[in-house]
Amino acid sequence: MTGKRIALVTGGNRGIGFETCRQLAHAGLEVFLASRQRGEGEQAAQQLQAHGFAVKPLQLDVSDSDSVARCLAGLARSGVEIDVLINNAGVYPTTPITDASEQEFALALQVNLLGAWRMAKAVFPGMLQRGYGRIVNVSSGLGQMNQPGGPGAGVYGISKAALNALTLELANAARGDIKVNAMDPGWVATRMGGRGAPRKPEEASITIIWLATLPPDGPNGGFFLDKRPLEW
Fold first, then answer.
1. Closest listed residue to residue 35, CA positions, set 14, 7, 49, 52
2. What is the CATH number of the domain that holds 45?
3. Tens digits of per-residue pLDDT, 75-92?
4. Does the pLDDT of residue 224 top 60, yes or no?
5. Cβ–Cβ < 8 Å for 98, 20
């Protein structure tokens, strides 16, 4: 064990998650890069390790409660306690709600909502016991309830609106120096966002790093874009 804060980033093998791992490691945290596919995670971690960053790969499927339990139990056996959780793993089914299949809707909720809940539930007790923790939920402006017509992008937006509600519930449960916040990365040029998106992962990750390293008087239970608060 080191004296560094320890962070876990889900969906860390590419896009916003990969850049978040890089920036967290650059900020001096020890980072666990979690990915559903073991090989992809190992390859991504090796890229960062080659530049001297303290990043270790983890195989983790947030949609599988057994996978989450095995992963966190393995970390605990190694004496690893997660100080910072970045719930970044996500899927992007945008089928209109009246056309979506039950399978599409279930997948969006399994990953975008329940995946974040599983991870938070796994690390929250330890954070409460130690009196410190930072949880950042990577949400979306498409999940905002106050925009005309409510959440957009079909089942994706609904799952992100639910993630925002989860953020508030967790923030209300926080005690001591524990902060739980959500953020909107904007439209980012990743495999999910597409090449035509105007923002880079580096821009989106700035707010994640800010929320992941908040001081004790930082916000709790907020929703942010570029460090600016958003309406839910």
1. 14
2. 3.40.50.720
3. 999 999 999 999 999 999
4. yes
5. no
